[in-house]
UniProtKB/TrEMBL annotation:
<dbReference type="Pfam" id="PF07690">
    <property type="entry name" value="MFS_1"/>
</dbReference>
<feature type="transmembrane region" description="Helical">
    <location>
        <begin position="381"/>
        <end position="404"/>
    </location>
</feature>
<feature type="transmembrane region" description="Helical">
    <location>
        <begin position="21"/>
        <end position="39"/>
    </location>
</feature>
<dbReference type="InterPro" id="IPR020846">
    <property type="entry name" value="MFS_dom"/>
</dbReference>
<feature type="transmembrane region" description="Helical">
    <location>
        <begin position="59"/>
        <end position="84"/>
    </location>
</feature>
<feature type="transmembrane region" description="Helical">
    <location>
        <begin position="155"/>
        <end position="174"/>
    </location>
</feature>
<feature type="transmembrane region" description="Helical">
    <location>
        <begin position="91"/>
        <end position="111"/>
    </location>
</feature>
<feature type="transmembrane region" description="Helical">
    <location>
        <begin position="228"/>
        <end position="246"/>
    </location>
</feature>
<dbReference type="InterPro" id="IPR050189">
    <property type="entry name" value="MFS_Efflux_Transporters"/>
</dbReference>
<keyword id="KW-0472">Membrane</keyword>
<feature type="transmembrane region" description="Helical">
    <location>
        <begin position="266"/>
        <end position="285"/>
    </location>
</feature>
<keyword id="KW-0812">Transmembrane</keyword>
<protein>
    <submittedName>
        <fullName>MFS transporter</fullName>
    </submittedName>
</protein>
<feature type="transmembrane region" description="Helical">
    <location>
        <begin position="315"/>
        <end position="335"/>
    </location>
</feature>
<feature type="transmembrane region" description="Helical">
    <location>
        <begin position="117"/>
        <end position="143"/>
    </location>
</feature>
<feature type="transmembrane region" description="Helical">
    <location>
        <begin position="180"/>
        <end position="200"/>
    </location>
</feature>
<feature type="domain" description="Major facilitator superfamily (MFS) profile">
    <location>
        <begin position="21"/>
        <end position="408"/>
    </location>
</feature>
């Protein structure tokens, strides 16, 4: 009997290894679908100058079109939680990709500002459904490596941010119209849906209880606590900063600094390289005090907001600033705002805390492009960078000092 057991052990080990590899491969397919989403998300700001020229939109209107998708994300957060409680995560994720892809394709056929706003907002609804379901899959299956799994999701966005602008610039140059890249990236989403339907099994997506759970220590029992209130204010500020940059920075490069579409795409791809450092940003958040991490990151964002829009025309300068921005703002501020929201409450309130984060950050982000475009139109790009990014970031750094680390929860494996 012992010999049989010993003989069977290698077989079981190989089977478990094969199962793990299969699960990682399926998770890789889900991450690839989010890479496509990120590619699609990054191309509209790159093409915004061409859209503005054809339709005669103002800078403020162009900025609103670039960031209105975040309003869809903010609105769709709670309904997505309702759907996930009643339908499979795989189904919700695919529906989200479908909505995102249809909205993207329809953008190319918009007749004017009103219907284009609707299509762009619809892409946000689809992205919220996809992202929420993807995070649910990652944190439910990879329980022992939740931070790494969520970091991989954010890093996959960085991969899309690298590839998307370059691919869009190539398509724009080859086809001579901004509609070609929009339609092309929209259609790729349906390919991703088919791949998920065929290759991804419920054994990955529908896991509810895993063998390992987490025991929380500390954290408030409800959302009405000091840290959550402060982090909500910081998320509102973060949305205005992050999406002020993402929504209108490519337009600034093309119209103010007169970069070509190819050079603009290259700079935005280098920003994506900075986003790949999200795992480091998350590690910093787990290692050090939130006052130190967010305070220093917001102060760094204030300095970046000043230098980016001062008009340094050299490609190397803008590329370096964009890389640092990707690490500091997207890879550190964004990641840790999400993490600290969850740490501010007991584990059974984590879902509601995440909803507050999504609603506040993406809600303010919806109008970030419009606001920075409005300021730039009235007072110039230098003033827009100082007011919307530098000044708000300084306020964020001061608010970070009021956080209470001792009231945040810690987790241990049980």
């Amino acid at each position: 009997m012992n010999d049989a057991t010993t003989a069977g052990a290698p077989g079981r080990a190989h089977a478990e290894t094969d199962t793990r590899l299969a699960m990682l491969a399926m998770f890789g397919i889900l991450l690839a679908s989010y890479v496509i989403n990120a590619m699609d998300r990054q191309i509209f700001p790159l093409l915004a100058a061409d859209v503005r020229k054809e339709y005669g939109f103002s800078l403020a209107d162009t900025g609103l079109l670039s960031t209105i998708f975040t309003l869809g994300m903010a609105v769709a957060g709670w309904p997505t939680g309702y759907l996930l409680a009643r339908y499979s995560r795989k189904a919700v994720l695919q529906i989200g990709i479908a909505i995102f892809s249809v909205g993207t394709v329809l953008t190319a056929y918009a007749g004017g500002m009103a219907d284009m706003l609707v299509y762009r907002a619809a892409t946000g609804i689809g992205e919220a459904m996809q992202l929420t379901a993807l995070i649910a899959v990652a944190t439910s299956y990879f329980v022992r490596y939740r931070a790494v799994a969520v970091g991989a999701i954010n890093a996959s966005f960085g991969v899309g941010a690298i590839i998307g602008p370059i691919a869009a610039a190539v398509l724009l140059s080859a086809q001579g119209t901004w509609r070609g890249p929009i339609i092309g990236f929209g259609l790729i989403g349906f390919v991703a849906m088919a791949a998920i339907w065929i290759a991804v099994r419920p054994s990955l997506t529908e896991v509810v209880n895993n063998r390992q759970s987490l025991a929380g220590e500390g954290g408030a029992s409800g959302l009405n606590n000091r840290n959550t209130v402060l982090l909500t204010l910081l998320s509102l500020i973060g949305g205005l900063i992050i999406y002020g940059y993402l929504g209108m920075y490519p337009t600034f490069l093309r119209e103010q600094l007169h970069y070509s579409p190819a050079d603009t795409g290259s700079v935005m791809s280098i920003y994506g390289l900075g986003v790949l450092a999200s795992l480091i940003g998350g590690w910093l958040g787990d290692r050090f005090s939130p006052r130190l991490v967010l305070g220093f990151a917001f102060l760094s964002a204030a300095a970046l907001g000043y230098f980016i829009f001062q008009g340094a025309t050299a490609f190397a300068a803008q590329a370096c600033l964009s890389f640092v921005w990707g690490f500091v703002v997207s890879g550190t501020i964004y990641v840790n705002l999400a993490g600290y929201h969850v740490k501010s409450v007991v584990p059974d309130q984590a879902g509601r805390a995440t909803g507050i984060f999504v609603t506040s950050l993406y809600g303010s982000g919806a109008f970030a492009g419009y606001l920075i475009g409005f300021i730039a139109n009235k007072a110039g790009w230098v003033s827009a960078g100082l007011i919307q990014i530098s000044c708000l970031a300084i306020v964020g750094a001061l608010l970070s000092l009021a956080l209470s680390p001792r009231d945040m929860s810690s987790s241990r494996s049980r």
